[in-house]
């Protein structure tokens, strides 16, 4: 008798599954051997072992993923997680706005940096050290002097920085370069 491969595979699959749940024999009624006079006590149902804890992916999200598309292999950047937005209630401090201006400056968005720093120096926060006021004015002076080219505004910003902190090195170094424009308002 020759059975097709799919039937044999199904037979072994079912046999493998039933053997994993126990060795209890089932009487199908067609057996020639005499049945035992007493019925054996049923075995307890098998317990399922807990699945192992999920392991983190071994590749960081920033790595590239290779995808196979029939005969072609393409490389695609892994999806980045979506940032969580938090709503925070409270008071915005001068230093928070100063930090936002500093980040804008590092991104070379000088107009936005000046807007943040003007807003920051306009706040009177008694808990923020004077250094931050002086540094905000000094950095606005640097932007006016080197990026926007308004020497009069640069001079006024450096002078304001020195009012808050007489030893501010940025303001002291650059005010000399723009001092001849002190009466000018560009």
Proportion in helices? 40-55%
Shape: elongated
Number of helices: 6
Q: What's the CATH topology name of the domain at 94-181?
A: Serine Threonine Protein Phosphatase 5, Tetratricopeptide repeat
Give the low-confidence spans.
Answer: 59-63
Structural write-up:
The protein is mostly helical and 186 residues long. It has a domain at 94-181: Serine Threonine Protein Phosphatase 5, Tetratricopeptide repeat (Alpha Horseshoe), CATH 1.25.40.10. It is 46% helix and 6% strand. It has 6 helices and 2 strands, in the order H-E-E-H-H-H-H-H. The chain has helices at residues 5-20, 94-106, 110-122, 130-148, 151-164, 169-178; strands spanning 64-69, 72-77. Strands 1-2 form a two-stranded antiparallel ribbon. Helix 3 packs antiparallel against helix 4 (130-148), helix 4 (130-148) packs antiparallel against helix 5 and helix 5 (151-164) packs antiparallel against helix 6. It is elongated. The model is unreliable at 59-63 (pLDDT under 50).
What descriptive keywords fit this protein?
186 residues; mainly alpha; Serine Threonine Protein Phosphatase 5, Tetratricopeptide repeat; two-stranded antiparallel sheet; 6 helices; 2 strands; 6% strand
Summarize the entry for a quick read.
This protein is mainly α and 186 residues long.
Note the topology.
Layout: H1 5-20, E1 64-69, E2 72-77, H2 94-106, H3 110-122, H4 130-148, H5 151-164, H6 169-178
Antiparallel strand pairs: 1-2
């Amino acid at each position: 008798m020759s059975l097709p491969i799919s039937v044999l595979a199904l037979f072994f699959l079912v046999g493998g599954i039933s053997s994993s749940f126990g060795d209890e024999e089932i009487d199908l009624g067609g057996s020639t051997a005499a049945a035992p006079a007493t019925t054996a006590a049923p075995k307890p149902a098998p317990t399922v072992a807990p699945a192992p804890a999920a392991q983190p992916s071994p590749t960081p999200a920033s790595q590239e993923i290779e995808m196979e598309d029939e005969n072609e292999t393409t490389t695609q950047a892994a999806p980045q997680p979506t940032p969580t937005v938090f709503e925070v209630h409270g008071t915005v401090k001068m230093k928070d706005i100063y930090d936002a201006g500093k980040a804008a400056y590092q991104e070379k968005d000088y107009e936005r940096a000046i807007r943040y720093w003007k807003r920051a120096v306009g706040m009177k926060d008694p808990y923020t050290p004077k250094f931050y006021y002086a540094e905000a004015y000094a950095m606005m002076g640097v932007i006016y002097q080197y990026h926007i080219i308004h020497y009069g505004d640069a001079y006024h910003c450096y002078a304001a920085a020195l009012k808050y902190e007489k030893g501010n090195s940025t303001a002291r170094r650059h005010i000399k370069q723009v001092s001849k424009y002190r009466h000018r308002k560009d």
